[in-house]
Amino acid sequence: MAFSTDRLKTRALELGFNMIGIIPAAPSPMLEAYLRWIDAEMHGKMGYLARPDRIARRRDLNVILPGVQSMIVVGLDYGAVIPPEILENPSRGRIATYAWGLDYHDVMTPRLDQLAAWLKAEATLDFQHRAYVDTGAILERSHAQQAGLGFVGKNTMLIHPRRGSTFFLGEILTDLEFDAYDTPHRTTMCGSCTRCLTACPTNAFPRPYVLDSRRCISYLTIEYKDWIDPTLRPLMGNWIYGCDVCQDVCPWQRFSHPTQEIDFLLADVERAAPPLVEILMLDEAAFQARFAGSAITRIGHNRIVRNACIAAGNWGDEIIIPALIQLLDASSPLVRGHAAWALGRILTTQARAALHRRLVEEDDAQVQEEIRQALTL
Question: Could you read off the pLDDT of 261-283 as tens digits, one per residue?
Answer without folding.
Answer: 999 987 678 889 999 999 999 99
